[in-house]
Each structure stands twice: as C-alpha cells, then as structure tokens.
Amino acid sequence: MRTLITGGTLVGPLGATPTDVLVDGETVAALLAPPVPIDPSARGAAGAATAAASGTGRPVVDADRVIDATGKYVIPGGVDVHTHMELPFGGTAASDTFATGSAAAAWGGTTTIVDFAVQRTGEVVEEGLTAWHAKAAGQCAIDYGFHMIMGGVDEAALKAMDSLVAHEGVTSFKLFMAYPGVFFSDDGQILRAMQRAAESGATIMMHAENGLAIDVLVAQALARGDTDPIHHGLTRPPALEGEATHRASVLAQVAGNPPLYFVHLSASEALGVISAARTAGRNVFAETCPQYLYLSLEEHLGAPGFEGARYVASPPLRTNTAPHADDLWRGLRTDDLAVVSTDHCPFCLKEQKELGRGDFSKIPNGIGTVEHRIDLIYQGVVTGKISLQRWVETCATTPARMFGLYPRKGVVAPGSDADIVVYDPNATTTISAATHHMNLDHSAWEGFEIAGKVDTVLSRGSVVVSDGQFHGRAGHGRYVPRGLSQYLR
Amino acid sequence: MRTLITGGTLVGPLGATPTDVLVDGETVAALLAPPVPIDPSARGAAGAATAAASGTGRPVVDADRVIDATGKYVIPGGVDVHTHMELPFGGTAASDTFATGSAAAAWGGTTTIVDFAVQRTGEVVEEGLTAWHAKAAGQCAIDYGFHMIMGGVDEAALKAMDSLVAHEGVTSFKLFMAYPGVFFSDDGQILRAMQRAAESGATIMMHAENGLAIDVLVAQALARGDTDPIHHGLTRPPALEGEATHRASVLAQVAGNPPLYFVHLSASEALGVISAARTAGRNVFAETCPQYLYLSLEEHLGAPGFEGARYVASPPLRTNTAPHADDLWRGLRTDDLAVVSTDHCPFCLKEQKELGRGDFSKIPNGIGTVEHRIDLIYQGVVTGKISLQRWVETCATTPARMFGLYPRKGVVAPGSDADIVVYDPNATTTISAATHHMNLDHSAWEGFEIAGKVDTVLSRGSVVVSDGQFHGRAGHGRYVPRGLSQYLR
Amino acid sequence: MRTLITGGTLVGPLGATPTDVLVDGETVAALLAPPVPIDPSARGAAGAATAAASGTGRPVVDADRVIDATGKYVIPGGVDVHTHMELPFGGTAASDTFATGSAAAAWGGTTTIVDFAVQRTGEVVEEGLTAWHAKAAGQCAIDYGFHMIMGGVDEAALKAMDSLVAHEGVTSFKLFMAYPGVFFSDDGQILRAMQRAAESGATIMMHAENGLAIDVLVAQALARGDTDPIHHGLTRPPALEGEATHRASVLAQVAGNPPLYFVHLSASEALGVISAARTAGRNVFAETCPQYLYLSLEEHLGAPGFEGARYVASPPLRTNTAPHADDLWRGLRTDDLAVVSTDHCPFCLKEQKELGRGDFSKIPNGIGTVEHRIDLIYQGVVTGKISLQRWVETCATTPARMFGLYPRKGVVAPGSDADIVVYDPNATTTISAATHHMNLDHSAWEGFEIAGKVDTVLSRGSVVVSDGQFHGRAGHGRYVPRGLSQYLR
Amino acid sequence: MRTLITGGTLVGPLGATPTDVLVDGETVAALLAPPVPIDPSARGAAGAATAAASGTGRPVVDADRVIDATGKYVIPGGVDVHTHMELPFGGTAASDTFATGSAAAAWGGTTTIVDFAVQRTGEVVEEGLTAWHAKAAGQCAIDYGFHMIMGGVDEAALKAMDSLVAHEGVTSFKLFMAYPGVFFSDDGQILRAMQRAAESGATIMMHAENGLAIDVLVAQALARGDTDPIHHGLTRPPALEGEATHRASVLAQVAGNPPLYFVHLSASEALGVISAARTAGRNVFAETCPQYLYLSLEEHLGAPGFEGARYVASPPLRTNTAPHADDLWRGLRTDDLAVVSTDHCPFCLKEQKELGRGDFSKIPNGIGTVEHRIDLIYQGVVTGKISLQRWVETCATTPARMFGLYPRKGVVAPGSDADIVVYDPNATTTISAATHHMNLDHSAWEGFEIAGKVDTVLSRGSVVVSDGQFHGRAGHGRYVPRGLSQYLR
Ligand SMILES: [Zn+2]
Ligand SMILES: [Zn+2]
Ligand SMILES: [Zn+2]
Ligand SMILES: [Zn+2]
Ligand SMILES: [Zn+2]
Ligand SMILES: [Zn+2]
Ligand SMILES: [Zn+2]
Ligand SMILES: [Zn+2]
Question: Could you tell me which residues carry N6-carboxylysine (chains A, B, C, D) (predicted)?
Fold first, then answer.
C-alpha cells in the first residue's frame, strides 16, 4: 500500500516547505520536491495513482492512494508523553481506558502516547509494568509506550530500573516529591534513583511539589473549614513547586547529572530553576500542559460552588494575578519548556469528582485533554505566542527525541513511521463534552473555539481519521519500546 | 543531471539517519529511505545509474552519477556568515580575494559565504554595496551574499537600509561600538538604526566593544611603551565587550526589539548578557568564532617577540586564566551561541602584520579561518563538547535560517539548493600554511590535527571538491539575495 | 555655653535608647545615662542648670540651658548631600540662594548641605569652585561643603581633581552621562576620571542616563508634536537609566574600582545594577530622592495641561504601573540605597518653568525639597516601610560617612559637632508653598500631611530653630572641607 | 565602684573615635569627649581617681579606678551566639563545661555566650531547657543566654516555643535539616515551627544540610571502605548545604516570613541564597565561623592518617579549589553574613575524636574556638579583608541586636552593661593547646600567630582579665533573658 500526500506544506522544527510525502506500508519512503509527476491514467479507485516516468528526472511514484493536502499543513503525528489511562486514584480510576483514550488521542492528531505504569509504595516494579501491559494490550488505536512510576525506591526497585532500561524499552522513571504514603520518595531515595539513572542513561521524571509542606497546609485548611475546590490550589502554592524543582535539580547534580525532566511545570518559580540549569548547560528539561497555559485558579478552580472540582489537578491551576501563563508561553518559545503534554487523567463529575464534595482533598486529581492538545497549542501559533515550527516541535518532535522514539516517531522523514497528520488551518473546531471522544461527562475546555482542525490522521501508514470519521481500531496500536533520550546536550 | 548520494548518514539539527539523497540539477529532488533500488544493468560510465521499477513499492530512481557515502556523513554545505574578502584596513587589504577566499571556503566544506560590504564614515551606503558587488562578481567558487557595514548612521543611511532590505536582498546591518572615526556609531545613531530595523524586520549585527574606553587604554599603553602584540589584548578587556553587549541589548529594547545579532562574541561577560536576554524570550543572538574556542591571550597573542601579531583580531583572544572558552562551548551547546562563523580576515605577516611592529595598534586586525571552520568545530564533536547535530546546526542550518537563506541553504531537503558535503569521520586532516588554499603566508592553525575530513563538496548540484581535487571555478558562485531572519521566536 | 538635652530618646543607626546629651560650645561633650542629676537650686534664667555632686557616682553636669526632649527623638542633624542653590540652568537659575536655601534646610532639620560647584564643558575647574565659594560665603545658616561637577574631563581637569582632594576638601566629583554639550562626558573621559579617583581615593558621583539615546527620543517626540511635560518622562525611559548605571559600574571596574556613587537613582533597572555590584562586594553606592518615592509619571508629570512642569526633573518621575517606588523603599531597607538626598533644585513656575511651555525640553529641570526631606522620609517609619534607625542612617549618618564628614557630622557622639535635631513624633506638619521657607512659588509637596515635626534644631551648638521660630543667621554656617569616604568596605 | 577607661579609641560599627568611658557599677554611665579632667590629688590606691571641677565646662568625674587605654581599642565585649558547652554527642560530651568554656571565652574577649539548650527527638522542650539551666547555673564567668534546639516539632513543642518566648527569655529556636533520628525535622515540621515563629516574632535558626541525601552518601562511602576523616567532608558536599538553605528560605516565605537565621554557613552556594533573599529585602540572616574562613578540606580535614579528625565539624571544612573562603569574607564585608560565631563544640582527641577511628561517621563533630574568635577575626582587619568597624559589628554588636540583647550587650553606650574589652593592636598572641584555657587536648588553631591581643576584659563592670591574669569567677556570669530580634528590616 502506497500513499502519496501531495500539495501540502510540510512543517517541522526547522521550517515549513512545500513537500510531498510518499508512504509505503507503515513507513515514509520518500520526501519529494513538488510537483511530483503522477500518471493520471493509472489512477484507480479510492484516489490511488500510479506515477509514470516523468521525463523530468524526478523520481516517479505510483501510489495506491493520494491525499490532497493543498492549503494544509502536513505534520508528524502528535506524541503525548504524559497520559494516565485507567489510573487508579483514591478508590476510583481515570475514566478513559486505553481503548477510549487512545481513540480520542487519534481524533486529536496524537499518534503516540507514553503512559505511566505504576508501582505504588510497597509494590514490585515489574509487576506494575506487567499490569499496565495487560491493560493496554490489544486496546490501543495508536502506538504507545510506558514510563514507570516509582512509588518508593529501594534496592529491588533500583535493580528493576536497570532491567527495564535494558530489556523492556522503559527508559524513564517518574518520582514524586509529593503524596507521602502513596508515591512519595524522600531525598535519599531520589538521590539513589538519580545515581542509578546517571549510570544507565535513563531519564528521571519529577513531580516537583513539596508534599510534606503541602500536607500541613491541607490539614490546616480543612481544620479551618476551608473545604472548597479553590483550597486545593491555595494549599499548593507556586513557591513549593519552585522549591521542589530547585531541590531536584541540586540532587541531580550531586547524583552525577542524569537527564532530569520535570513533568507538568506550572509556576514561574519552577521555570526560573529550569532556565538557570539550562543556561548552565545541564540536561534539565520540562514540559507544561495546556491547562496551565489557558486556565486559572481564580476563574476555573475558584468557580462557584463545586464547579471548580472539574479543574482539580496537581500542580493546581495558578493565579492570574501573577504572570505564570505568560511565562510558560515564553518558556515554550525559548525551549526552557521543551514539551507540551496533557497529563491526561480524566475523572467524571458523577461518582468521581463528587467524592470530594465537602473535602477538596478527596477530589480525584486530573483533567482530560488528550484529544485537544494539538488544537489548543495551535492557538498559540494563531495568536503569535509561538511559531508554527515550535508547535510541531513541542507537540511531536521533541517529545519523541526526549524519550527515545526518534526518528521512528516525531518526524516525517524517510524511514520513519508514517504517523502523519494533515492539519487544516482554515477549518475550525468547537470543543464540547457533547462531541468529544474521551470517556468523560464534562470538559475543562467546554466551548473553546479552535481556529484549525485535524483533517486526516495516519498511524503507521493507516488512515485512522479522515472526513470526520474514525477508521481506526483497537489493537492497531502497538507497544513501542524506547531507547535513551536523544535530546541531550 | 541527476546525482544520487547513497549509503550515507544524513545529519541535520534533529538527528542522524541513513538517508539517500537525489539531486536533480541544482536542487535536491528527494530524500529516500535506503536502500534505494537501482537497476545495475542501466549503470553507465562515470557511476551513472538508472533505477528500474523495484517491485517493492519504493520510488525508483535513475541517476547520472552515484556518490557512495557509505560510512560517511552527508551534511548541508557550510554557511559562513562572517567573512571579509579584500577588506581594506589600515592602508592594506585582507589578502584573500573573493576568488581565492571562496575557493578556500569550498575546500573546507563551506558552500555559502555572507561577506560584509562596507560604508565607512562619510561614505554613501549604496556605493559601498556596489563596490563590493564589483569585487565579487564572477569571482566566486560558491554562492555568496552581503551584509552591509554601516560606518555612520544618518538620514541617508537610514533610507538606504530600507532600500537594501526591499530591493537588494541585504537584510542585515553591522554597526560598530568600537573604532571611533572609522566605523563607530554613537548610541544615538545605534538607536536610530535599530528603530529602523524594528520597522523593516532587518537584523542589526553588532561589534560590541566599548571603543571610547579602549582607545584611552590603548593610548595609555603606547605612552607607557607597551607596544607588543599582547597589549592589543590587554587594552581590550572582556568587561568592555560585556558592557557594550549589555548596552546594545538595552538600546534594542528601547528601539522596539529588532532582531539583534552579536558578531564574534568572545567573552563570558558578553555571553551572560546574551543568556539573560534569551531567557527573557528576546530575539537576541550571537555567533562565536573558532579562534575564541581554541586560542588564548597568553599562549598565542602573547607569543614571544612579534609572533603574537598573527593572532591579532578584535575582539582579542581571551585569557586562559578564566573560563571564556569553556563558557563559549557551553553556549554552543545551549544555543545561547547560535552560530559559528570565522570572521575570516586574513593578513599576511609580510608587508601586512608587520606594519604594527613596535606599535600593536597598527597591526591589521584579522585571522584567516574560512577553510577550516567545519573541521575545527567537528573537533568539538570528537571531544564530546557538542553533539553531531549541533555541529551541523551551528555551521550550516542556523546561519542560513538566521540570515534569510532557508530553506535554499543550510538544509538537505527536497527543493533546497544541492549544497552538500560528504564528510568522512574516519579520515584526518592536517592544517598548514604549506597546504591550505587561502592566500595567506601563515596559519593561525598551523599543525592542528583534525580527526575528520571534507570528502566531497557539491555546490548547487555541481561537485566542486572530490578526491582531493578542486573541480570548481570562479563565477560558478552566484549572489544570493536574502530575506528576513527565519530564526525569530 | 553648655546645653543639656534631657529626657529624649537618642536615635542612631544601631538603635534607640534613652540618653541625655551634653553640649559644650560647638560640640558634644558627653552622652549620659539618664537620669542625670541636676541641682535644681542652681537653675537660673533661660533653663540653665548647675548639677551638683549627685552622690550616686554619676557624673554631675552644670548646663546653661536645658532642652526637655521628653517624648521626643534626639537625632543627628540631617545631611543633604545633593543640593543646587543658585544653579544656572537654561538661561535662568535655581530660585533658592545659599541664604534662602540653607535657612529652609535648617527649618527642615537639615544642618549640613553639600552643594555642587560647577565646571561646564570648556570651563576651568578651579574657577568653578571659586565662583561657588563666592556665592555661599557668609550666606549660609548651616554648614556646607562642595562636590565638583566635571563638565568635561581633560588633562587640566584631571589635575584639578587631585588638587581639590589634596587642598580644597572637595573629594567627590560628579560626571554626567547625559546632557551632551553641557555636562556630558564620553566613556573615555569617564574612564580617565575614574582612574584618577581610584588613585586619589576620591568618589565618582554619576548622573546615569544615556543622554545620546535620550536626545534622539526627545527630538523625535518634539518632531511628532509631543510637547507636553509628560513627554519629558516618556523620552527618558527607565531602561536608559539602567543601561547607564551598568555601564558606569563596568567602567569603574576597568578603572580600578574607585568609590562610585550614583545620584538620584529612580528606576528598578538601575537598582538591580547596584544590588548586583554590592552583592559582589564592590564600593558602589546610590542615593534616591523623596520625589521618586512618592510621586509618579502618571499622577504628577502627566497632570493636565502644563501642571506637570512643576515635576520636571531628571531622571524623571517614574511610572506607577511598575514597582519602581516599592523597589526604592526596599533598597532603602537593604542599604542598596544608602542615602536619601533631595537633588534640591527649585524653579518657580513664573518665568522659570514657563520657559518650557510648548516644548518640554525647555522646562528647567528640578524640584525643591530641601526643607522636607527629614519629614518625608519619616513617613516611611510611620508606615512601616523603614525602621526608625534607617531614617536617621539614610538622612544623616550615612551621607556624612559617605562623603568624609564623619564623625564631625552625622552622629551625636562625644567630640562631634553639636548638630542636633529634636523631633516630635506626636506633632504634625502640613506642607504648603504658603508656609514653606524655600524661595519657590509652588510646592511639589503641596498638601502633604506629615505625622511628625521638627521641634528644635541645633547647628554647632547654637539653637537655630525652636518654638516655631528661626533663630539662625546667614553666615553662621561654615564651609566644611571633607575627607575621603568613610563608608568603604 | 567607678571606672574610667581613658585614652583609648572607641570602636563601634559606625567608626572609631577617641572617647573616654565612665563605668559606674555594672553599667556604662557616660561617654565623654577627651580629655576628661581628673583631679590627680584625689588619686588613691589601685589607680582610683577623683575628678575635680575642671573649670572647662566639661563634666567632672571621680573614678575609683582608671584604665589607661592609650594606643588601644576600646570595644564592646564579644557576643558569641553559638556555643555548645557540655553537649552530649554520640556517647560522649563536649569537653568544655560552662565553667571552663565561659572562662576561656572571657580570656578571649567574649563577655556573653548564647548556648543551645537541647530537646532531642522524643524529649520535652521545657525539660531540656531546665537541664541546661542546671548545667550553667553558678558556673559561668560571663553572662549567658540560651537558644533552644528543637529536635522534633509536634503540638507540644509548638506550645513550648510560645511559652519560652513569653516567659523564659528564649526567643530563638534551632531546627535541623540534617541528623535524621536525632535532631532532624522534616519540611512539614519546619513549616509549622516557622509559622509559629512568624506569629510570636521568634527567630528560626537553621542547620541547613540535606541530611537525607547526606546519609545515603555516608553509607555508600563506608560501604566502599572510604572511612578516613576526609570522607566526612566529601559526603557533605556544598551543594547540599546550598539546597537546604534554599529550601528553608522558601519554607519561611510560605510560613509568613519569620526571622530566619542560618547557623555556621560554610559554602558559596548557601551564601548565594542568602544574598538573593536579602537583596529582596527579607529578614534572612546568616553567621559563619572562623574555621570556614581559615581552614580547608584538603589541608586540614584531609591531613594524613587520622589527623583530620580534629577538624571534623558539620558542615565540614570546604575545598580550597573553590572560592568558599573568599566568598565568606566578602559576605562579611557586605553584611550578607551578619555574625561571626564559633559553633564552639570541643572534643578531645583522646577518648573522644578517637571514637571515629576507622569510621569517620563516628567522630564527634566539633571544633573548639570560643577563646579565639575575636583574635581570629581581627586578622581580617590586619589583612584588609574587613574594616575595623565590621570586626566589632560582626563579633559583638550585630549578634547582640540579632538575638534581642541590645543595648544591654554589644555596644559601649550610656546605660549598657559594662562589658568592655581593651584590645591592643600592637601586641601579639600565639595560639597553642599548651597555653589556651579551653578544656581541650589539642587546638585546631595550633601555631596561629595573631597580630593583636586581648588586653583587659570587663564583665558588667568587673575586670575579669587584665595583665595576663584571670580575675573572674564561676558564678559571676548571670543568665540573660532575651527579647525578640532587633536586627529586622
Ligand atoms: Zn504528577
Ligand atoms: Zn501525571
Ligand atoms: Zn567586528
Ligand atoms: Zn568582522
Ligand atoms: Zn543629576
Ligand atoms: Zn542634581
Ligand atoms: Zn548545626
Ligand atoms: Zn552548633
């Protein structure tokens, strides 16, 4: 099966140029300078085309299918490196399965997710990974990989880290400076995991909030009777994200400088730590998420009554009385923020978010965005906050390079997997729980009007979305073992 | 004429992957996933090949010439955006003509230079550009463009800036904070030029040294009898480069933030200014040059007797008692230094450098490096200071994007000019005045042993260097009008 | 003549303690732990007292006069190191003579001024000093000293600097980075003056605004027809004060680190430069003035019509949309701002400020505050912005130490000049042109209500203000030759 | 009993001036401008003098004793706010009792110590204080106060803090970020203690080293067989002091900004945190100790064999390959380091330091310096590192103000305790275990030659040291309850 995507503008981190793309089977066979001569006589059903010899010296192509991308962008499929399908949390679980969540991702132009397998404190690392493989196997519409959440670092866990890197294609490990008793690692444990990563080349991913201090503030708030959702935000101040970010950065230095990647960075204070480390030339990286770019403590988390519950995530939405969001957009411009991921972790209002009515600390933490990331960040291009190139780089190319998926993922290049999105800048999208494809009874993005639209999505050469239809299937997506980071300096 | 470069590893800023490159005429027709099927029966003389239908679904190519790049890197031809061919200076002129200098560049894997046309204080801008066109026309072995040196900003010069941007393909203007009476602009003039650039989108290039302070120090040194070459360095301390860099950065803010590019950055103090501005998200950029990465005040400029004269350039070589060079390498890693150029400005010892015997201030300023940049920076890859990708990015891709040459130059992509270098990492090169191709009776790099070698060079599809032979010719190179910077945030 | 000030709280930079002060003639004879036994039988007319032997082991005092300071602060007389009496400016002259201005100072609790003798570009330094001595001699109500304004640094001026330090008690020299053609020194001249100061120990005072850039902005504003007073502020942006401050700081490093004192610091950008230099341990200092703490670009300089003219000074009042004033108060707390002076330079509206109607650049620059500094800064104590100790330190002790007047001035200690103010924190003061003592037909401080009041003022042991009466006289004040700075690290 | 100290130069933080001091009983009665007239006819035995009426208007004094300080400095007695007399540590106890240690302090010109009462994890705060009062009562040669070490913050401890502030004159509480299981508080506990201090006005003192990370490094070193004393230093890297300092600074912000005082600051990284907080105007303070100014990891802790054990303290001596010591001296100049204390905690080699032979982690932590602080810091004056004024300020005035002892201690002023040292800058002192007065069988300062000598020491008006003799007695020293910090901004 050969597919020619023709007439479009290929966009990558370096620029945008008119380029035709020939897909052969599951991978990209060639990039071609247009116009690519095609023999119209050979065109058959379903837009197939056979290119005859052109006589111009150009390579000739015969394609079974031609996708006309005229007036549209051709970009690598999105890579969302932070999702939590079916994550158990506080007695319930994230509402998207790998099946529903991966299909929703595909709808939104994301063709690879890297989800988090979980070891909780006291559990065995390898068993956690096995359990997550079981959840995902045969369910996914798109390709997927796993990071490993380390809920407690001991001798066995350290050995497991090496084993996962060597044998399982899991090369990144998330540690928590928050959630004592659940995921929390103390500074000694963090140091040891970082030392191990420095040796193996693995990446340490960090949830950087000072959970011990936060838990004091939470208990004090509840004791005062401050139980509304906004207190979730007020008890997790930006300074405590900044502090933890600084601490992790120093511990990494002491540990021998493993690659260090901060997840869901939300606060200016934390960004300042990243900027300083990066100016110093260190392998310190960070992602942010759409919620921190668009939503705020006052407007969303502080919505009347229990409305704010739908926006409860950790770190919390930040105040709009300080320039957190502006700083994050600037970080995306400067590459101090290298990646946009979603931290997709949806919980329905009904029976899930409601668990925290009267006690914000019991509201399941998470927002569902896996379907909308590409659209939401494209708005930054429309409003001039970032360039077209950075859109592609932060949503696809860098996440792939950061987590050892390149050049298989994150780029449209000869030999790469044919994970390709045709994006129409002239169409529009309206986001609503009524129309989205995530398994979620509300949307944090309800009513957002997007300039731009995911037109066609290919996953490993197969069209999974086109003409507003889903052509994918559970089980098309395969597990992708990953190598070490390719984004190091 | 079709050429297939096969078997090599294509290296760009994002990564290195096995990719075959098909050149058709002067441009790249396609990038192809190897192996590319070629019909051996069709192979004729001179390595030409006709590819038959492969039956594998791959595009089939027929090529007139096949270049075997097995075991080698295929990279975009180098772009050196800072050269001074035939530059008049202190009663003499740089010893390389456009003919000799551009041929030497080609030998070294550089396929585009951007030279500086000159308006001196009191002269007319357009006449300067005309004069430089006259010097270069029909002489160059490779393509070339021009920046404009503004030796004094007045109403006419400001109008000329707009005209050069609109009509002449000259979109970058160098100002001097040093050399009072020759090139110097005062802060008011700088502000006005920056305002104009902010409107037109042109880039301001800055020679950032506080020349008024330096001239006091020079006069004091000469008055004390300190006349040896090392005093060239001692009278131009790093702090005065840092100061001027800071000042220009602030003036650009006041002027409305035109793109601001610092040439030949040499000092940690200046780098700190760049880092701060870039962390703040501003369009502030800088280049450094090989001499600041490898040579030092003490070892080279302070060589016994008059030996140091061969290393006299401005800014001067910096002390090795402070980490200037380490900081510059770090800057290249972090992209605080975006470009490596040469500031190629060769003067022979005989009759040129000798003019300054007994008075360092009369030594013509300049070092000749246009032939060695690609090799010298590749050593940073060999020693682990930068990645393979950054080598290509700093020497080819970013300079092309920075100065409006992309995607015609700086990248190997469908539709781009076929300026391509095959680089052999397993061969070696020894630098010597006895063997180099620059018109220069000595070498600042004498005896440098390079791990790596320029193997084959194509300029717009023509092989100009291969098998240790020069196949180019004066006049092959064409003037390339440039657009606005494509490296903005 | 012996005076005992009894019952008060002596306030100095280290703290506030109940202490009695015995003045003998022109100086302080003793500080005494209260209660000081005084023989009531010996008390004569005018509050005089003779203390008999107390039998308690305490020293016994007999005083001709007793000042009851119960419930009041006893502080060293204020030292205002930045005044411009009778300064010629743009065809007119500051409206306060040394007679009127020094009397107004005394009214306000200031007992020493250091005024600026002026050498304009092209004039002879020593002649300027002579002229200023002639203006002041026999006129002043309080003691006075001189700084020297250097309006152009050449060989003769450099020699004059040394001579003034050695023979004239003038140990500080003000240079201008603004006002080209009038006072402006270029960077080479500044460097030379700094080098000379580094040798002699003199202090360089700097007016730090980039005048070359400002003059471009001024010309452009006038050309656009933007002639109102607010454009005085808009054409002198904070960034250009920050730039000049940074430049001067670097030049001082290159010159060998003379003491460097920035006058009238007004902008956060400039304060940041000071903070960095001071954290690095350098002898870099700054003053601010009340106008930058209380008045703003929008509210005052931007007052309707020509009203803003009364607030035209350089640097200009700063915007209240950025935290300049808050930052300055913080600087006073941290000692990054060591001194509060007035930059007293009054011009009447009538016939003076009016010269700039229709052209803001012709409005004489200056605000009159010499009478109100102690009161205005005391409000910072009342509102909790600074401590009681810092009020005394910034207004009296540090300026005396900074400019070589200590311990003669700036402290109440045995042997010091008896320049003493009794300040009543429970009384109040209303500022108005109708009641002030400056020769000025308006007040920038009209209607300011002060919590606190200057109660009694002694100058060298003589009561010059008490009971709301002026008891001083022209000619009481003497010229005070100054030594080198005593505030160095 | 009246004592007149005459002929000397009184030195305080603001300057040095010839001043006579009259002591009456336990306090200073007056400061007098010399010459003070004394009636020689009245002079009796033991240098007593009765001053007759002078006829000059000067106060007349009759003194029982006259101390001739001609050619000498008169300074406030030293205040050492960090000592550990009889501190239990690892099965042994610091070798100085309150009797021996306080006498040694007096010998060295220190007239007040503030020692640390201890609550260990699991103990009751008030019982700790009672125990320490019992150790000190009736033993001390000089006055003393207590800080409280909090070895674990819980509800009872928080209440105890308030009680100690309100009733016990204990206004400062030391927390540990190191020593898990002994003194360690986690971040939640620290936050709560800081919140309480923010309410009461108490000062939080912090031992800032990341003990959880350190304990991992220590265990790894011992497991590797790295048991020599130098590994005490190598397992406590400067970065981990910097990290903890930063963390505590952020926690204090979150807690409402109580006064925060870092003890025994030793590393440039930590100093940087202090500088930043102080530039921001926060009430963040730090002390350093002589060992960090003079001794190094390589030269002392790394001495051959077990020699390094005598220098084992925490934080450890720092490397001399980085400018830690230079930075600390600079910090003393700039007041980023406000205080010099000793962290006096002596352990003999015999039977104490020897406990750690073969396992550096078992070496009792501490160095004995209480006798030498004034001398050692005076060397900084001699070598030009700090001014004469800063010597007095950092060793006496600021510690007294910082910890609520002012103006009773730390200053020579009317009404203050007559704790006075006459210091002879022209005599010399040689430090040796053979001659020192601490109960310690070695000296970290063996062989140090001091330019300067403690000549005479008065404690509350009594001469305790003079003519090389000790005239003090155990029990003269009294407990001094302290108020809140008087050094706030
Ligand atoms: Zn997380
Ligand atoms: Zn997450
Ligand atoms: Zn240049
Ligand atoms: Zn150049
Ligand atoms: Zn001025
Ligand atoms: Zn002035
Ligand atoms: Zn400690
Ligand atoms: Zn201690």
Answer: 174
Query: In this predicted structure, what is the pLDDT of residue A43?
Result: 43
The verdict on B94 and B19 lying in the same domain is no
Closest CA–CA distance from residue C118 to any residue of chain D (Å):
31
Report whether pLDDT(A310) > 50. yes
Question: Position B228: which residue type?
Answer: D
**Burial of A155 per CB tally in 10 Å (0-12, 13-18, 19+):** exposed
**Which of A339, A371, A402 corresponds to the end of one domain?**
A402
- Say which ligand is closest to the CA of D83: 8
Distance from residue D207's CA to the centre of ligand 7 (Å): 5
Q: Are B185 and B153 in contact (CB under 8 A)?
A: yes
Beta strand D260-262 with D284-288: parallel, antiparallel or unpaired? parallel
Residue-wise pLDDT for A195-228, tens only, equals: 999 999 999 999 999 999 999 999 999 999 999 9
**B486: which chain A residues are within 8 Å (Cβ-Cβ)?**
15
In the structure, what pLDDT confidence band is assigned to residue B152 with cuts at 50, 70 and 90? confident
D271 and D191 housed in the same domain: yes
Q: What is the pLDDT of residues B231-287, one digit of tens each?
A: 999 999 999 999 999 999 999 999 999 999 999 999 999 999 999 999 999 999 999
Based on the fold, state whether residues D280 and D394 are members of the same structural domain.
yes
Residue A238: both structure tokens together: 């930006």
- Out of D212, D239, D254, closest to residue A186 by CB: D212
What are the Cα distances from residue A139, in Å, to A77, A116, A143, B367?
19, 16, 10, 63
Cα–Cα dist C233/C212, whole Å: 16
Residue A25 counted as domain residue = yes
Interface residue of B154, B187, B269 to substitute, partner C, most C CBs within 10 Å: B187
CATH of the domain at A14: 2.30.40
User: Given pLDDT bands bounded at 50, 70 and 90, which one contains residue C122?
Assistant: confident
**Tens-digit pLDDT profile for residues D8-65:** 999 999 999 999 999 999 999 999 999 887 654 444 433 344 443 444 555 567 789 9
CA pair distance B263, B81, nearest whole angstrom: 10
Nearest chain D residue to A269 by CA distance is D250
Tell me how close the Cα of A75 comes to any Cα of chain B, in angstroms: 15
Q: Splitting chain D (489 residues) into consecutive groups of 10 residues, what average pLDDT does each group show?
A: 96 98 97 80 42 49 92 98 95 96 98 97 94 98 98 95 98 97 96 98 98 98 98 98 98 98 98 98 98 98 96 98 98 98 98 97 97 98 98 98 98 98 98 98 98 98 98 98 97
CA distance B213 to chain C (A): 4
Closest-approach residue (CA) in chain A for D249: A243
Nearest CA in chain B to A19: B414
Inspect the interface and report whether the beta carbons of B216 and C251 lie closer than 8 Å. Answer: no
Residue D236: alpha-carbon gap to chain centroid: 23
Partner-chain contact D212 A188, CB within 8 Å: yes
CA distance C379 to chain D (A): 16
Find which of D154, D179, D187 to mutate to test the A interface (most A CBs within 10 Å of its CB). D187
Q: Output the pLDDT for position D59.
A: 58
Residues D129, D65, single domain; the answer is no
Chain C residue numbers touching B187 (CB-CB < 8 A): 210, 212-213
ipTM, interface predicted TM-score of the complex: 0.96
Residue C426 burial (C-beta neighbours within 10 Å; 0-12, 13-18, 19+) = exposed
Q: Is it the case that residue C55 has pLDDT exceeding 80? A: no
Q: What six digits make up the tokens of C421?
A: 């103010």
Interface test with chain A among B5, B271, B279, by most A beta carbons within 10 Å:
B279
The count of structural domains within chain C is 2
Chain A residue numbers touching B278 (CB-CB < 8 A): 334
Is the CB of residue A442 less than 8 Å from the CB of residue A57? no
**Record: contact B247-C242, CB cut-off 8 A:** no
Beta-bridge partners for D68 = D6
Q: How confident is the model at residue B122 (pLDDT cuts 50, 70, 90)?
A: confident
- By DSSP bridging, strand C172-176 and strand A172-176 are unpaired
